[in-house]
Structures are given as structure tokens and as C-alpha cells.
Write a structure and sequence with these properties.
- The structure is a single chain.
- The chain is α/β, with parallel strands linked by helices.
- It has helices at residues 7-15, 22-34, 44-57, 61-72, 101-113, 140-144, 156-166, 179-188, 197-209, 231-247, 270-281, 293-309, 316-329, 331-342, 378-390, 433-442, and strands at residues 86-92, 124-129, 168-171, 215-222, 251-258, 266-268, 361-366, 371-375, 404-407, 414-415, 420-426, 444-446, 456-460.
- The chain has three domains: 7-57; 81-352, Pyrimidine Nucleoside Phosphorylase, Chain A, domain 2; 359-446, Aldehyde Oxidoreductase, domain 3 (Alpha-Beta Complex), CATH 3.90.1170.30.
- The protein is built from 16 helices and 13 strands.
- It has a six-stranded mixed beta sheet, sandwiched between helices. Strands 6-9-11-7 form a four-stranded antiparallel beta sheet. The protein has a three-stranded antiparallel beta sheet with strand order 10-8-12.
- The N and C termini lie far apart (45 Å).
- The model has no long low-confidence stretch (mean pLDDT 93).
- Homodimer.
Length: 463
């Protein structure tokens, strides 16, 4: 008779530094997804203890591979083979104002539907499984759900239809799709275990591998706004994810990207959608807002790698150029409208996205003296955005559609005394004071320009 594996024993073994067996890990994840209110196979306290044990003890490669696989197959998985396309996705480890998915998905969808494609090269489809706000960073699903009617909770059949009709789907983890991660993801935010490279790897890769991908491009943040506190830890995370993806048969590339300030013009929920729609609608470079330049550059670089891996560009650099051409041609905006429409979103809102931004109160911080915007703790900026109402204090909390910030300057910019630095938005005027104090504390103006890191620090691939 097979010996029963108790969840508490799994917790104790990992707490004490033992290597968990495949059976122990699989049994724990099975109990996690099979529990009901009437039959608590594993309790929230035991799940929290498991997360903390992994946070402190780590996982060896075999444990990490088994945990990722168990989570991947904890529910339904997607089968992309009937589409006869190259299935590719991108994922970010999370950042303040990081909205590249909202640009990349329509760019790749437009490229995949383009006719003619390079000789002998299959089309492209992009099944993007995204998450909600976590810690100091925003969530793609929260942003998308500010579009009236937009449905992120698609069934696998609906995902297939969206990919077949418009080349992309922007969805979340439903109870039947990677349910183990849905449970763990929510608890990590409130157990102090968000920053574990092993838990991040298992979370991201279980979702991505469940998409039946041919290739995956990872945006791993480093700098003051990243989950990982040091460059070496960010690099470790990138290496873990690349190794996990490649060992599962998915071509995986990771870019270590600098994140010392919010990405783009806005950080929040609806305002980030607004920013991306403005970019998608712009037909000339001159029509773009200058605060969005870094967002566009990073989006094109990531899209470029995806187009290259899919065979639509001979090099990543050629792919980035193609991405820019698709953006300015208007094809990506048309693809965006198709994606939103098939997921039941109201596309009429994009005729005047600025008009949909309706905060109850706003406040602008100005410079007290002249100089250069020299530094900021980007993580603290993210917490300020969260406390304006754009993030969550606990799982299940509602988020404000209109809370957030608008940046009026980037690191290294010359600053005049009295110049606007950042504008705060909220739907509750009582929430303004603390975020204002946090931002005033962290935005530093110096007499000389700072030394800035390049946007792409390193590209990680298997040897």
C-alpha cells in the first residue's frame, strides 16, 4: 500500500533543509488544488509555511523542475497544434508602469496575420496568460479589465477562437488553467515570499509552459524597481527560468532590463491602457508623447526577439525594426481592436481614451530647486501607486481604475525649479497624502547628471 504523504510533513522536510521527493511535491500540489471548504486537504497556514520554507531553503534543479511541472499540469493545458502556427509569448517579472504586453501582443498578432509571410515561415499566435497586481507592481489583467466588458477569464475553447481569429489572447489563470499557481500567486503577496527566485520561476514557467509554446522571451527586471534586490539575484532568476524552459522543450531567452524608474508616462491601471492606445494610434514618431519613448524602445526590443525566434526576422535587431514599422503602420492598432472586440471589450472607448480617465482628485509635485533628476527608489514609487488605490492590500481587494501617477521627467533630465515632476491621481482624496510624502522623499534632484545604466543589461541564453 502506498504511504500517504501529509502536507505538514512536506512543510517540515523543506523547513529542515531536506530535498523533497517528486512524490512529495506532486502530493502537495494535488492537495492544494483538490481541497474544498468542506475538505481542507491542506490549510492556508500550511501553504504559507511551505512558501516561507522554500523562500529560505531554496530548491535544487530537480525540485524546481518537479514543482513547475506539477503546477503546469494541475489543471487544463492548452493545445496549440491545430493552429499550425508558431506559438510565442513574452513575460515580465513585473515592474512599475510595465505595460509592454499591451503593445507586444497586437504587434505580434499583426505580424502573424500579415500576408505574405516570409517563404515557408508559419504564422504567429500569442497566448498571453497574465497576472494581477503583486506587491509594488501592477497587473496586466487589472489594466485590461478597466476596458468596459473586457473578459480575461476565457475557456480554452475561447482562447483557441481568439488565437484563430486575431492571433492573440490576453487571459488570466482561470480555476481550470494552472489552478495551483492561481492559489499560490495570491498568497505570495501576503506572506513575504514574493521575491523568491524559485517561486517566481515556478509561477511564471508553469503558466507559460501550459500555453504549449514554441518560444518564450522573458523580461527580467533589475534595478531599484525589480523584485530581485541585486543584479546577481536578477541574473540567477533569469538563468533558472531559461534552464526550466529549455529543459521542457521551449526555446527560451531572457533579457535583463534596467528598471530604476517607472516605464513610460503612466503607472496605474486605465491610464496605462490609455498610454498604449495613444502609441498604437500614432502614425508618426512626432505624434508620440516623449515620456513613452523608453516604453516603446523596450517593447520593440522584446517584440524583435519574438519575431526573430518565430522566423519573421533574420536577427533580433531586424525584428525590433519590423516591430516599429508595424506600430507606425497602424496594423498593430487594428489587431488591438480585434483582440479587444473578440474578448467582449467596448472598442468605442478608444475614440477618446483621455476622456475615460476620471479620478476624483489629483495633485502635482513640483521641483523645489533646479538640477537633474538623479535617482529614485522605483520600488517606493510603486508602493506609492499602490497606496493611491491602484493595487491591493490583500487578495480579492478591488483596485481603482483611475488611481496612479503621471511622470513628467525621466532620470537624467534637466529640471527647473518649480517644474512638475509627477502628478498623482486617486478616487479617494484621503489617499493622497502618504503617497505624496513617499514620492517627495525618493525623487532626488542633484546638481550634476547621473550615470545611467543601459536599458538592456544582458541577454541570457543556454550555452
Amino acid at each position: 500500500m502506498t504511504q500517504t504523504i501529509h502536507p505538514l510533513d512536506v512543510v517540515l522536510h523543506k523547513r529542515d533543509g531536506r530535498v523533497l521527493t517528486d512524490d512529495e511535491i506532486q502530493a502537495f500540489i494535488h492537495a492544494l488544488v483538490q481541497r474544498t471548504p468542506q475538505n481542507q486537504l491542506v490549510t492556508d497556514a500550511q501553504i504559507a509555511a511551505f512558501l516561507m520554507a522554500v523562500f529560505h531553503r531554496g530548491l535544487i534543479p530537480q525540485e524546481l523542475a518537479t514543482l513547475t511541472s506539477a503546477m503546469r499540469y494541475s489543471g487544463e493545458t492548452f493545445d496549440a497544434s491545430p493552429l499550425h502556427t508558431f506559438t510565442v509569448d513574452k513575460h515580465s517579472t513585473g515592474g512599475v508602469g510595465d505595460k509592454t504586453s499591451l503593445l507586444i501582443a497586437p504587434v505580434l498578432a499583426a505580424a502573424g496575420l500579415a500576408s505574405p509571410t516570409p517563404s515557408g515561415v508559419p504564422g504567429i499566435c500569442v497566448p498571453m496568460i497574465s497576472g494581477r497586481s503583486l506587491g509594488h507592481t501592477g497587473g496586466t489583467l487589472d489594466k485590461l479589465e478597466t476596458i468596459p466588458g473586457f473578459n480575461t477569464q476565457l475557456t480554452l475553447d475561447q482562447i483557441f477562437l481568439s488565437l484563430e481569429k486575431c492571433g492573440a489572447a490576453l487571459v488570466g489563470q482561470t480555476p481550470r488553467l494552472v489552478p495551483a499557481d492561481r492559489i499560490l500567486y495570491a498568497l505570495r503577496d501576503h506572506t513575504g515570499t514574493v521575491e523568491s527566485p524559485y517561486l517566481i520561476t515556478a509561477s511564471i514557467m508553469s503558466k507559460k509552459l501550459a500555453e504549449d509554446l514554441n518560444a518564450l522571451v522573458l523580461d527580467v527586471k533589475t534595478g531599484s524597481g525589480a523584485f530581485m534586490p541585486t543584479y546577481d539575484q536578477s541574473k540567477l532568476l533569469a538563468e533558472l527560468m531559461v534552464q526550466t524552459g529549455e529543459s521542457s522543450g521551449t526555446r527560451t531567452i531572457a533579457l535583463l532590463t534596467n528598471h530604476d524608474e517607472p516605464l513610460g508616462r503612466f503607472a496605474g491601471n486605465w491610464i496605462e491602457v490609455w498610454e498604449c492606445v495613444d502609441i498604437l494610434r500614432a502614425k508618426r514618431i512626432e505624434d508620440r508623447h516623449p515620456m513613452s519613448a523608453d516604453l516603446i524602445k523596450l517593447s520593440n526590443i522584446l517584440s524583435g526577439w519574438m519575431l526573430h525566434l518565430a522566423g519573421h526576422a533574420p536577427t533580433p535587431e531586424a525584428g525590433a525594426k519590423l516591430s516599429e514599422e508595424i506600430l507606425l503602420s497602424g496594423a498593430a492598432f487594428k489587431a488591438w481592436l480585434r483582440i479587444v472586440a473578440i474578448q467582449c471589450g467596448d472598442v468605442s472607448i478608444f475614440h477618446d481614451p483621455a476622456a475615460h480617465h476620471q479620478p476624483t482628485a489629483s495633485r502635482t509635485l513640483t521641483a523645489t530647486h533646479a538640477g537633474y533628476l538623479a535617482s529614485m527608489d522605483c520600488k517606493q514609487v510603486g508602493w506609492a501607486v499602490q497606496r493611491l488605490g491602484a493595487g491591493r492590500a490583500k487578495p480579492g481587494d478591488p483596485v481603482s481604475a483611475h488611481a496612479g501617477i503621471e511622470m513628467h521627467a525621466k532620470l537624467g533630465d534637466p529640471i527647473k525649479s518649480g517644474q512638475p515632476l509627477v502628478t498623482l491621481f486617486t478616487e479617494d482624496v484621503s489617499l493622497l497624502d502618504e503617497p505624496e510624502a513617499m514620492l517627495r522623499e525618493t525623487l532626488h534632484i542633484a546638481p550634476t547628471p547621473p550615470q545611467l545604466q543601459p536599458s538592456i543589461r544582458e541577454v541570457i541564453t543556454l550555452p
